[in-house]
């Protein structure tokens, strides 16, 4: 039996539609992608003021030590042995203070990050979003355009407040 193109056309057409309906993309639901201004949500947390106060104190104290170290460094080869000893002490003091500030600040930072992550997750789930990106990171070339309705910042702020 000879098959010609006219006889095969209906079979090919049915096969093409049948196979096309089996494609994985045809069975998945579209995912909603949202954006959050994470810095704004972090700044809204009550512990943010405590963190900023510790950072300011650290910057002031460590800045003063750094200034003294740079003054000794500026002397170059004219620095005396006493200057070099003082520099070594200043560096040790600066490192110890930096570690103390980090130890003091880390539990507060962890609590804020956990609360913000929870608030963003709650807002995303409540609004049907499956992916949420930090708006600042996305704006660095990762995303060229996003509709304003995809912003979950306000919803995350509401979820953050008790």
Automatic annotation (TrEMBL):
The keyword Signal applies. Coiled coil: none annotated. Residues 1-26 form the signal peptide. Keywords: Signal. It comes from the Bacteria. InterPro entries: Chaperone_Skp, Skp_dom_sf. Belongs to the Skp family. This is OmpH family outer membrane protein.
């Amino acid at each position: 039996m000879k098959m010609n193109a006219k006889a095969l056309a209906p079979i090919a057409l049915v096969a093409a539609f049948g196979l096309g309906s089996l494609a994985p993309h045809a069975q998945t639901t579209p995912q909603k992608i949202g954006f959050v201004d994470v810095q704004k949500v972090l700044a809204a947390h009550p512990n943010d003021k405590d963190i900023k106060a510790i950072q300011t104190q650290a910057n002031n104290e460590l800045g003063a030590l750094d200034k003294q170290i740079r003054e000794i460094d500026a002397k170059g080869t004219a620095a005396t042995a006493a200057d070099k000893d003082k520099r070594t002490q200043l560096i040790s003091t600066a490192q110890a203070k930096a570690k103390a500030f980090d130890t003091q600040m880390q539990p507060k930072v962890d609590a804020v990050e956990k609360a913000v992550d929870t608030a963003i997750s709650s807002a995303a789930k409540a609004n049907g979003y499956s992916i949420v990106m930090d708006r600042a990171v996305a704006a660095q070339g990762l995303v060229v355009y996003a509709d304003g309705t995809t912003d979950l910042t306000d919803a995350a702020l509401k979820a953050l407040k008790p």
